[in-house]
What we know:
Number of domains: 1
Number of strands: 0
Oligomer: single chain
Order of helices and strands: HHHH
Helix content: over 70%
Shape: elongated
CATH class: Mainly Alpha
CATH superfamily: Regulator of RNA polymerase sigma(70) subunit, domain 4
Number of helices: 4
Radius of gyration: 18 Å
Structural class: mainly alpha
Strand content: under 5%
CATH architecture: Up-down Bundle
Largest sheet: none
Amino acid sequence: MSSQGGAAEERRTVTRDLIDKLLKERQEMLVLFCEVAGLEPYHRSASLDQQLQTFCQVLIDYIAFGHFEVFGHVSNGNERRSGVLQVAEKIYPEFVRASEIAVSFNDRYDLSDHELQLDHLSEDLCQLGEELAVRIELEDQLLATMLDR
């Protein structure tokens, strides 16, 4: 019986660590999002280039962690609670849509392989912000269920 309790406690610790890391990455991404959004009007400069590059990198890290680590944890059988599985299944399509918008933003504004065009940065940030808000709301639903709230 005590080994079952130890395994359950270990699973809870893994879940809490996963959630803590996601929330930390989310916070870092949101701070950088606000910094970039606060630079409007956008004029090409080394500073803007660097801030956009950093933001894109952190954005993709956050998106990937949520997608592959958090949803991976649930879908790989590491999560057995039916409530968590039901919430994950329900929110997944919208979660993926928000992730795709973020990846598209990165493809447009990551400087690693193309010239930066700022013509639509303001509108693209606005759309990204709306999708990030949706994604965060969906994540919070899943995380609350994972934490049994």
